[in-house]
Structures are given as C-alpha cells and as structure tokens.
Amino acid sequence: MIDATALPRLLHGPSGRPLTLEQHEALFVSQTPAQSIAAELQASGLTGRGGAAFPTWRKAEFIAGQRGHNKFMVVNAMEGEPGSHKDRTLLSANPHLVLDGAEILASLIGAKHIAICVARDNPTVVNHLKRAVHERERRSLRGPKLELHTPPWRYVAGEESALVHWLDDNESLPQYRAHRPHVLRISHNPAMVDNTETCANVGLIARFGADWFRKLGTAESPGTALVSLTGAVANQAVVEVPLGTPISTILARANADPRPQALLLGGYGGSWISGQHVDTPYANEFLRPLGATVGAGIMVVLPRSACGLVETQRIVQWMANESARQCGPCAFGLPSLAEDLTHLVRTTRDAEAVLRRLHERCGLIEGRGACHHPDGVVQLVRSALKVFADDLRQHMSGAPCAPSRSNQHVVKVPTLEHEEEQMWE
Amino acid sequence: MGVRRKSGGFVLKVNPILCDGYGHCAELAPDLVRTDEWGYPIVVAVPVPLSNLGALASARYAVRGCPRKAMHIERVADES
Questions:
Q1: In chain B, what are the domains?
Q2: What global pTM score does this model have?
Q3: What number is the ipTM of this complex?
Q4: Count of domains in chain A?
Q5: Which of A84, A282, A376, B16 is found 20 to 30 A from B25 (Cα to Cα)?
Q6: pLDDT (tens digit per residue) in A50-71
Q7: B interface mutation test: which of A332, A336, A358, A366 has the most B CBs within 10 A?
Q8: How far, in Å, CA of B6 to CA of A37, rounded?
C-alpha cells in the first residue's frame, strides 16, 4: 500500500515512459476497501477536477438512477486550456490508473462503453493510450468496452455537451440545456463525463478507501491536485500538491517567480488574483473570497516585468476567436470586449467612455450563452480591471507602462486562426 | 381560458443557439424582452406571476411569433 501522506499519488514514474500494466499492478496492489465503492466515494468527498468541482459521487448517483442499457462513461482528456498540461502529463505517466478509475465509475453507473477522448493534435498521448488500451484488451475482453476517440482540438470542444455531441456523430459544438440537471446522451443513452484526474483519483479511492484519501488536503476539499504552471516559471511543470497548500509553496516547488505581480487561476476563463495573496491556501474555500477558484488547476505566473492588461487583452482576443459563434451574445459580445480592451491598452482619447462601455457590456453578456464560455471571459475581464487598477489608470491617462510597448509576452496564447480554418469535426 | 391560476409564475426562456436576433420577441412582448446592441433578446429573469394575464399573453405571442422557434415558457412553482 502506498503511504497516505506521501507524494506523488498520481504521477508515478517518469513522464513520457508510461507504466505498463504489469508495472502498474505491481505498484498499486489491488485491494478491496471496507465499504462498497459508492459509499467510499461519497465518504471521500472527491470533487471533479475539470473546473466545476462538482461532487463526483452525486453525479455518479444521478446517472446510475437514469434508465438505459448502453450507458457511456466518457473520460475527458481534451485539455482545451492552452495553459493546462496536467492531463497529458498524467496520461503519459500512468494511463492505467485513469482507466482503472473509468472502469470503476462505469461499473457504478452501469455503463457498457468507456470512451476516452484525447485531442488529436496530441499524437504522443494518443499512442500512449492506444498501447494501454491494447494491453488491457490482451489481458481480458470482459467488462465495459474501451474506445479511444480523438476529437479536434478547440477551446470549447472539451466542454462536456460539445464532447458528447461530437461522440454522437455531430460537430463538437456546445448544446443548449433548457433544464438542469441535464442528462447528456449518446444515441439516447445517458453518458457521464469526468475529467482524467478525477478518474485517476477514483482509481485510488477504490483501492485504498476514503480515509486514506482524506489524509491529504483540507476537510472541505480533500485530496491532491495537479497544478499546471506556466508564465514566469523556470520550466513549465505540473506539480502535485495537497489541496490547501499555500500558493507560495507551489511556486517554490516549480521554481517560479516567488514574488509575482499577479496570478491567473482556474484557466483562461478564470480570474486574476494579486501577487500579494501568495500565502493563500490553494483550495476553493480560501480562494472564493478573492473571486477565484482552483478550476482546472491552471496557474499562470505574471512577473513584475509584464503588463497584465496587455496579457488579458491577448487572452480575450483569442477566446473571442475560439467562440463557436452559435449564440449572439458570445459571437458578437466577446470580439467587442476584446476591442474595448485594445482601446484601453493603446491609449485613446475617450478612455473613460470605453471603460464605461466595457463594464456595461460585461453585464450584458454574462449568463446569456448556451455554455459558460462567455461567462468565463467576463469573469477574466472583471478580475483584470480590479487587479490591474493602477496599471489601468496609467494606461487611461496616456502613459502606458513600458512592458506594454514591447513585444515580449508571458501568457501562452495560440496563434489566431481564421474562422474558415477552424475545424469542428 | 381554462383554469385561472392564482399561484406560481413563469419565465420566458430563449435558446441562444437557435436565436438569430430577428427581434420579433422584443416587439411582441416589450414588457418582458429588450434587445442588446446586437439585436439579441435580454429576457427578464425573475419569474412573473401567472396571475399577470397580460404578461402571459404577450409571452405567448413572443413564443409563437419567433421565426426560429427559439423561445419557450417555463412554469415556476412558488417558493413556500
């Protein structure tokens, strides 16, 4: 049995040489926990690691209560966030732990298919998973059928309704859900979507039990989290930390800038927090007063030599381009947000009016899309206006900061694609 | 007109994917819907009581008059 307080829990073995099935089974000795797996999952208090932090047991219970003979268990390893690389690191370190968790969740909800979804621009990870699936099929063909799927990479393609829509032989576009809770369906069969890291944690809980799992982390958010660090970091790393670790410790473990100007938490639809909050514990209950969440475990470190407004403008511009252009408020609203931000960054004469319009548009766009893509962008813009208020005043007074005039950027943003070039299926 | 309901409310809802911003709803139910700068509807989010028959009638006009059939009325029970 692996020591409960020892790290790493998830990332065993060197990344890039995934553990084979034999190595995996030698490391994680199979053992049955005290109670049933559903009870252990509920007692563990595991929440989804894909961003929403919804209790996994409640989702499993809800889908288990749905009718259907051919239910689907979907493992979401799409990683739409450019700042995130935790899923591909986990899958290239120990794919069998993820597949274990997926099989356990599939047995909990009564699923007959497991669909693992990896974006197709990631051939290394796809090959690792092909090999892992093949190893399992050689061992035995019993249990739910493992299928590997490679949807196109888009920011919103990893959203659960878009992913399920793609698996149902359609385009990978988010869908409107009139009533919540909504049951996602693949050819009329209920489907449960869970993040890669969530599945890996389920694999651990089913082996060692809830008490073991709760030995790390806080009471409200137990367990560990994989944090992807980018920005002012010596080498872009994924570190595994117990939830509730001070952010400064996480920065030190990744050799990041110890006194950053600001941090972007949660993803490109997350929020900025000021660098003075580096001692805050990294868990949702401590970050919520600052207006941030753990989200998908993304942390972008902004050094003091960078301009937060310029970086936000670049992110918003890219996010506006990644909109699926289905809903009016998102298709027209996000480009206009980006335009307003550009006006603020490059000094204009009517900066006051632009700022007022930006605030107004943020209020207009929020909550009016089919998915939460526009809401995330609005949250990012609002937090940027709050955290970089001093910078903003300088920019508006006609004296933009020095870094905003250089071409050196910190935040990783993919190149903009033309609308015609974007692939959705 | 059937049973006159004394309790409960309704919310007019838009499917933003279907909606193409024709703006008919804002003309048919001006007390419930206004349009943003791009012509897409902003619907009152708080439930309107069902006893407000005028609002309910105009909401029905908006649902029937939508060229993309993007609107529906959702009944909301009273909180008790």
A1: 9-76 (3.30.70.20)
A2: 0.92
A3: 0.89
A4: 3
A5: A376
A6: 888 899 999 999 999 999 999 9
A7: A332
A8: 48
